[in-house]
Amino acid sequence: MTNIHPFTTAAACILTAGTALFTSSCQPTSPESYARQFATAQNVSVHGYNGRETLTSRVYADWGGMPDNARRAMTEYIKGAEWKKADYIRPQYFIQVDRSFWVICMDNDGNLAGIVPFRNGKDARKISVNNHFNMLVNTTDKAPALGYAILKNLAYADGLRVSTRKADGLTTPIPAPPAVKVVVPPKEAAPAAPAGKPAAAPAANANADADAEDADNAVETPDDATATDTEETPATDAPAADNAAEGDAPAADAPADDF
Prior knowledge:
alpha+beta, 5-stranded antiparallel β-sheet, globular, disordered C terminus
């Protein structure tokens, strides 16, 4: 039978607990948790600065509360983000979230690159641009539109950085609007022609009916001369009536020959 020393058991438990604590402390908080913190924060304000990289030369400007449209876009951006490692950042705006300060970072073209959040009162304004950062980066299809909405609605707080760069002879990149996808609907196929006679057939039939009607009218309407002879012939003159009837036959047959 194996005897387990109580001190060995206690040491193993402490080591296991310490390892779990260290592992959990090294794991970054989920993006969804930061999104909830940002969405429910009581105080969210925008701080611009002069764009200087060194801490001692930075000058900040408090522009007050963040606009609602920018805050909604930033919440959605964080929800769909994932953690990326960054050794160098380009701060553009510092956002106060209750007691902590976050930083919105851009790329070389002035577009949103990611967000570095902090908790427990940590101030992003006191960090260097060179460090090992856990950055929230959204790589979904919505990222370009969300990033543009954030930067566009915070542009009013970028005046200090723009003027400082202009004094240094530098231009300030402007974020580009996301490309709009043009969806072309498929071309509809032409309807198939109905089986049977072509479309012109009814017109031909109509002409044929009209011609037949004209022929009937010609047969029913006696010739003017024949009608006159019939009216002037006395009723008692039977041979003359027979001759008139015989004279009508060619007149009735003549139009039929034309058709």
